[in-house]
Design goal:
The chain has 102 residues and is mainly α. It has helices spanning 2-16, 19-59, 63-71, 73-88, 91-101.
Length: 102
């Protein structure tokens, strides 16, 4: 539902302003969006145990399954951080540009 609402909002925004203006506004929001993504990552790490226990109660998971979920905390955090660095910060694109200049 969040994805649908975001997509609909972006579609309506693209109809109300020219693409250059949208790009300029998004570029000015880039630092704040980065901070928002990091806050979400920190919240996920911080609330991981409570989230796992709630999911375990909801899905009637056994104790070993809950322990496996709890143990996955830092693996999930590392993968999300890696995705943020590679995709969100455009590390691959910057690396390709660096290779082209060399």
């Amino acid at each position: 539902m969040i994805t649908f609402g975001t997509g609909l909002g972006l579609l309506l925004w693209s109809q109300s302003e020219p693409p250059f203006e949208i790009s300029r506004k998004l570029a000015s929001l880039r630092p704040w969006l980065f901070v928002w993504r990091l806050l979400l990552l920190v919240a996920l790490i911080g609330f991981w145990p409570a989230f796992c226990r709630r999911v375990a109660r909801w899905r009637n998971l056994a104790e070993p399954e809950l322990n496996r979920l709890l143990a996955a905390r830092w693996t999930v955090a590392a993968w999300l951080l890696a995705l943020e660095l590679v995709l969100g910060q455009n590390v691959v694109g910057k690396f390709v540009l660096y290779l082209q200049k060399a």
